[in-house]
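Hey,
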Amino acid sequence: MEFEAAVGSMSRGFLTFSLTAERIRVYWVWGNREVCPYCRREKVVQDLLYREITSTEEKRKVAEFLAQMVAWLRDTDERDFYRTLRQRGTSWSVMVWADRVCLWARGEDIYPPWWDDVWASIREFTGDFSDAVVPGR
């Protein structure tokens, strides 16, 4: 299973988390228009954290978190939490790739009831990235 979450905006970029039982990766993704301001954006990825999960205890915690995410996403009645389609809002997306199925939810400026629990778990595995800024901005 793999958990992925992204939070951000097109103008600032997206802070992205990827978590499996074997590894943790945190990175920024944004579109660079410096190449040509009138052309499509060039995708830029900058890694902030990558580490292998080796301890049995942490693997157990990750497995519990992934199982909880599957339960939350299966119970989500409204998968699309969008209130507006404006580009200036903060967008988010959460996905769990389990077996051959992708469970997901997404939204903008409104969050599901389990949102705080997800971020508490992310901080436990990765540290606090709440003060992270887009590199080069």
